[in-house]
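Async update (no meeting this week)

Hi team, since we skipped the sync, here's where things stand on the single-chain job. The sequence we agreed to prioritize is pasted below, unchanged from the tracker. I ran it this morning and attached the output directly underneath so nobody has to dig for it. Comments welcome in thread, and please keep replies under the output.
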Amino acid sequence: MRGLVFLVLLPVSAAWPQAAKLSHLAKSESFAERPYMGWSSWSYFRSKPTEEKVKAEADALMAAHLPELGYRYINIDAGWTDGYDEHGIPKPNLRAFPSGMKALADYLHSRGLRFGLYFGPGIGPNLYQANPVIAGTNVHIQDIVDTSIPGSTLNGSYKIDVTKPAARAYIDSVVEQFARWGVDFLKFDFVGPGGGNRPADNREEVRLWHEAIARATERTGRPIWFELSNWLSIDQANLWRANANGWRIEDDIECYACGHSSDPAIKANLTEWSKVADRFNDVRPWIPYAKPGGWNDLDSLELGNGARDGITPDERQSMFILWAISCAPLYLGADLTQMDADDLKLISNRDILAIDQRGIPAAPLDIQSLRDGVRQAWMTLYPDGSAILALFNLGAKSAPLQFNWREVDALRDTHFAQHPPRLTDLISHTDVPAAGEGIDLTLASHASRIFRLTPAR
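Output:
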């Protein structure tokens, strides 16, 4: 297991991959070799992030020693912009971010952290009406826009006509600004085909953004993680994988009906169990697409604020385990300045983090006794013969969970029936009694267990 933990504990000061090591269009496995880890502003601050708040969250991340475990990305979601400059390039809101984006990036980089921003496809009505000249051209914004087609799955934007040469120039100009600021991560939201408020098709625009990011990376040597959102169509999974480092497989995890406030005195929940439970089924068809270079994004982990997470301790553990065995990005949505001690212990579990960072996602076992969909067993097999087994009870009542090793052998390339494995509980960090013929235990409602299975010698 020591080797697995090493995968998580990369030095905070680890150098970026050199541009020469990046393959065509920056899709080398040396970048995005593992799911990214960090924090995102949306769940807690919604559309009102500020420089002061972001720095406070970064400082809290450092104080909790989370970067030592891999949590390094500090990503600002919607709300950072304030219109566009004379070439249609987004400007930061200097009332909220008085030092500007480069100064904030420098602050984060000086602490060994990475800096993320949020943007989206298409052209908004305000930018269309302003109609600036695209940098380096004599072409106006309106000349690259088709107003008859939605520009994204969000209401109100117009489509960029990628057949126009200046469309590439415009996207390049935005990416170049992000690169000058020192951006390490770009969340590209409301991409279609997929979920959202209206149908849209951004496939060709995504390709242009991917190519622009690759060109910027070749010039700067600093790769930019390209994350697509939200609820992308699995019919286009190969295209997403070819052009991005991650893609959302579901709707937002936040419980918008629960109310919201960034005032700690107002007890508003971040999420609810139904939002978590949906991921157990929705991630299944995406499992084959999670591998070095690109990962299935289950959305932010609503962990860190205890009862204000909106889910029980058992539910929090089940959420964390599902994200980890799916090798999903692990980015926290809570207010880290109000960190709950039990949540911190959970998200700092090195054994479970190592599963996520190993990058071999688990898949559910189709065992006859578990086909009710409520009781589930997920397994990951490693080349050395070891395995990870995660057990879940998604039901509203306690339930027995039983199966024989022969059933596992019939589904996976294992020999547990002849040689029952040693089981180590990765939450309690203790070995459990001899496994015998199989698993026989009871799980409370929404509870989970996770074991490392070591072959008998």
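Quick observations from my side:
The first strand starts at residue 37 and ends at 40.
Confidence is low (pLDDT under 50) at residues 1-29.
Reply here if anything looks off.
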